[in-house]
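Write out structure tokens for alanine transaminase.
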Amino acid sequence: CGRGPGGRRGGRTDMALRCAASLAAGRQPRGPRREGTVRWSSAAKASAVKINEKASREKILTLESMNPQVKAVEYAVRGPIVLKAGEIEKELRKGIKKPFTEVIKANIGDAHAMGQRPITFLRQVVALCTYPNLLDSPSFPEDAKKRARRILQGCGGNSLGSYTASQGINCIREDVASYIERRDGGVPADPDNIYLTTGASDGISAILKILVSGGGKSRTGVMIPIPQYPLYSAAISELDAIQVNYYLDEENCWALNVNELRRALNEAKAYCNPKVLCIINPGNPTGQVQNRKCIEDVIHFAWEEKLFLLADEVYQDNVYSEGCQFHSFKKILYEMGPEYYNNVELASFHSTSKGYMGECGYRGGYMEVINLHPEIKGQLVKLLSVRLCPPVSGQAAMDIVVNPPVPGEESYAQFIKEKESVLNNLAKKAKLTEDMFNKIPGVHCNPLQGAMYAFPRIFIPSKAIEEAKAHKMAPDMFYCMKLLEETGICVVPGSGFGQREGTYHFRMTILPPVEKLKILLEKVKDFHIKFLEKYA
């Protein structure tokens, strides 16, 4: 089948490999470089076939052999609907005709992708940190330079490209603690209890990882709201923990009821050890803002039942409804007195991704963890050290969220103008979305008190439910897929967040510009009316 290196004949195995490769490529094998016909012995042919069989052996990693916990993970926000939206976008680029000209991705809270402008001051400071030569430029304000220099002094080699401590840059953790104290009216915060994270998701996953233990009926149970943000169910599946659902009260503006918490806890005790209670405030996907009394009741419940509290507060700047106000769990816990404040274990989370900033791509965030056992604190730092440190540019972005310009500084006027513009626009869009949904027959939308999503309840006729079953789809998945295929609007079915049996919803972001949002809502209205007529 040919000669080996230096003109020598290769061994039989080399010959067989080259022959097998020739056969696989559809070529006739070349003989030695001499005249005459190529003769294959039966042994050479058998050897070539055997080598070819080995080359296409079974994969080590298959769906059957992979980690079953990873296979169980589902994340609806980027699930089948979004994959289908991507396929449709490719078809549109190829010129394939559709009843629409673009896909509107209203499935995820990605503010800048929807056209929101970045906050100038935040970008200035991160730019200065990234390219310190700009510190000599007169184009940048002094208050931005001052913050950039302070951040860089906390970095090894004065460079954003160096690793930081696993807990994050010390001066930024100090700024986070100062921010929490200002936000909570003087409630003390210790920088040593602050951990900078890769978005809030990283902190939530780390805390859950360290909390989950046991087996059988002693396996850790994690109480989560239904509807919930799918990060929680995904993390619980990955850790092989037990998901314990408690239902928010849709008839009462998605309120959290302690009696429902107690029901869920008592039922769960029969099959697991519930020891974690997750709260999302303001709510995602439901947009409710919890009042002070509700938070006090939840804290008392956690204290009474010895539950570790997780407070997801990434939408704390996003409160729109009159009479609603954000209260941090940390503040209310402190004000309930030392019996609670010195005993209830609480992890609170914040992020650069939401609020008025919308800086999702920087992956900046923090968690504050209080009343942690000293030995567990060491274990948490060890766990976080495995990923070395959070993105340093994200840490810098988080610093500007907690340490923005203040009155008297040159950037303050522009900063406050941009911040208020974003939040006022979101408030208008929240009201617009609620009002327009509630004008559509067969759709009901609770007030959007906060966050950046609507979660309307939709009526789906029995005929459509039967057709969904025939396609092996949840009814609201079937509805959302039809909406995408006929209008180009991508939303997430309520079944991806959880909902009461027999109810159907979808989650839609309110982030598109007002004019595009109006068009989107009109398209949903027209689609829904036609859908009802078709399946009536």
